[in-house]
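Forum > Structural Biology > Help requests

Title: Can anyone predict the 3D structure of phosphoserine phosphatase?

Hi all, first post here. I have the sequence for phosphoserine phosphatase but no way to get a structure on my laptop. I'd be grateful if someone could post the structure tokens.
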Amino acid sequence: MKAYCFDLDGTLTRLELLPMIANEIGLHEEISALTEATIKGVIPFRKSFLLRCRLLNEISVSRVNEIVQEIPLYEAIVNFINANSQNCFVVTGNLDVWVLCLQKKIKARFYCSKASVKDNFIKSIDTVLEKSDAIDEIRRLGFEQIIAIGDGMGDVSMFEKADVGIAFGATHEPIQSLIEHSNYITFSETALCKLLNTL
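Reply #1:
Sure, ran it for you. Structure tokens for phosphoserine phosphatase below:
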């Protein structure tokens, strides 16, 4: 039995979520720079993510969901997931409360970082997801082969634990360290879906 594990930002979404959220409070450039540095591995994900959350915590959770709701998805990939929902997982460092609206569109089990909310605002970041831990948990569910799909430094630990790694370069050029852990590289959603259907 195969499990397909997808990164979210830049893999299922055509844009990075946190820079789009940052537009709301005029911090797009700052958050974009931090996001880009994180994708490239210049700043560790955990440190960068907590800093970005701190910068964005003045935006209400409901407003974040409204923004995220409008972010375009790679529809062909989402269609593949929805047709294979029992075998598909979204593994993202994003906060669970920020991606609730996407869970209605993408019929997969989500592994996310977790936050507590009070009066519609983030009260605390309770856990920051380690993607390798998510892969370990998915393997314990009984999947014999795990196929990981992603584009950035945050996906390397997921690729290290997976049986097959696919670097996806439609939104960002995949970073070299991820390519080194990849079995395949694709640059369009059509090519990715064709590959997924042949594995």
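The beta strands are 2-6, 88-95, 109-118, 121-127, 145-150, 164-168, 184-186. The longest strand covers residues 109-118.
Shout if anything looks off.
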